[in-house]
Amino acid sequence: MKSIRWWFWLGLLLVGRGGVWAEDWQEYLRQGIDRYRQAHTPADFAEAASAFRKAKALALPTRRDQQAQAAYWLGRAYYQQGDLEAAAKELEFALTLAPEDPAVHLWLGYCYAQQGRNRRAVEHLRRAYRSVEATPQERTSAREWLLSLYENPDLEALEPPEKLVTDRFIIKHYPREPVLGIVIRTLEEAARTIRDRLGLIIGEPTEVLIFRSAAEYQYYHQQRQLPRPEWSVACVANGRIFTYSTSTPTLFQTLQHEYTHVALRIATNDRRLPCWLDEGLASLVAQQFPAHRLDLERAYRRQALLPIDCLTVPSFSVYQGDRAYLAYLQSVSMVEVLLDRFGPTRLQDLLRLIGAGYTADEAFEAVLGMTQRGYLLAWQRELFGGY
Ligand SMILES: [Zn+2]
Asked: Is the same domain home to 40 and 130?
């Protein structure tokens, strides 16, 4: 009898405390939203964030909706303060609790787009745009952001109609596509090389679109407002591979090269690698630039090797002719020596740290004990001896 009475009082106490918690949670959330809506400066948003942090701390651990709402608003407040790392973390947490919420997808999309993590941005903006629960404003905003990333959602109508799903790929193609089999085999081979040589297991499926002709491929990219050069046979945009039905001999190497870029972006949590590492690894997997040692030695003797600042530009497409060739050549050699000297495990460590938001130089310091500039010198010593 005594124990029943004890349980009764304990139950009442818990219900009572639950009530108090809920009130505090809601009160802080309301305060935060008021401040957020009237905010003009980062300091105002910091005040809102402080209220949202309290709301999050007081939200009942058993109430996923409360936790998700507090984290969502806290993420928005961090975003407005310009702290994109903290914003992404909160919004990712909110998404685990409310995976269908279009507002969470939308703000995660903004956040990733601002960080240059466009594959993820497009994924979440599309989810928000397609969600039946999205408000008209949310849909409009998702569409505008998709347009700014050259991903007009209306262009889906131009995509090949058939879909083949394998373990690794979602392939959109036309009926009786003659290159379908060879495209799959080529990409599967790249996946094996990426696993054996770089030690990377690609954990996400990749979408591949095969158009019927160069003209269709070119037309699609013109409509995206990002036309491709006339010689292009395959390319990657926001994590998707585009190609067309062709017997061009360079198709296979190009596909393997582009797929490696996709694999690396998946491995780094959609963060950019320094250009030399990215292009070097992609060219290594595709076995491009095989005759490089002699050409490199010639460049070394002429003191024409590229300094690190020229290898960390956003894209090697800024270079033409000999300089472009040298940029790729030097990058392939630098990643080859990196893999021979330190092994794939160190490469994975580098990718993991960059994926966690560290700069490339911080990651190089932590994993190899030298910056990229230091590594460039070590590579020269290894290859040519001395400085
Ligand atoms: Zn490339």
From this structure: yes
The answer, as to whether pTM is greater than 0.85, is: yes
Give the distance (Å) from ligand 1 centre to CA of residue 146: 23
pLDDT computed for residue 23 by the predictor: 63
Distances (CA, A) of 290 to 16, 123, 197, 329: 73, 36, 16, 9
Question: What is the distance in A from the centroid of ligand 1 to the CA of 260?
Answer: 8
pLDDT digits (tens, 9 = 90+) for 107-158: 999 999 999 999 999 999 999 999 999 999 999 999 999 999 999 999 999 9
Angle subtended at Cα 235 by Cα 231 and Cα 237, rounded to the nearest 5 degrees? 140
Q: Closest by alpha carbon to 281, among 297, 301, 258?
A: 258
Quote the ligand 1 centre to 179 CA distance (angstroms): 22
Please give the distance, rounded to the nearest whole angstrom, from the Cα atom of residue 98 to the centre of ligand 1. Answer: 36
Report whether pLDDT(62) > 90.
no
Instruction: Print the domain residue range for 372.
Output: 275-384
> Domain of 228: which CATH number?
3.40.30.160
Q: Indicate whether 113 and 229 sit together in one domain.
A: no
Region 46-72: mean pLDDT is 91
Tell me which of 242, 267, 292 is where a domain ends: 267
Q: How many CB atoms lie within 10 A of CB 271?
A: 19
Check if the beta carbon of residue 70 is closer than 8 Å to that of residue 52: yes
The domain that holds 142 is classified in CATH as 1.25.40.10
Is 299:386 a contact under the CB 8 Å cutoff?
A: no
Q: Is there a contact between 151 and 120 (Cβ–Cβ < 8 Å)?
A: no
3-state helix, strand, coil in the chain (%, to 5): 70, 5, 25
Q: What's the CA-to-centroid distance between 60 and ligand 1, angstroms?
A: 48
Structural domain ending residue among the three candidates 103, 138, 154: 154
Centroid of ligand 1 to alpha carbon of 249 (angstroms)? 17
Instruction: Please state, in angstroms and as integers, the Cα–Cα distance from residue 194 to each residue in 46, 117, 224, following that order.
Output: 44, 22, 30
Residue 4, in any domain of the structure: no
Distance 315 CA to ligand 1 centre (A): 9
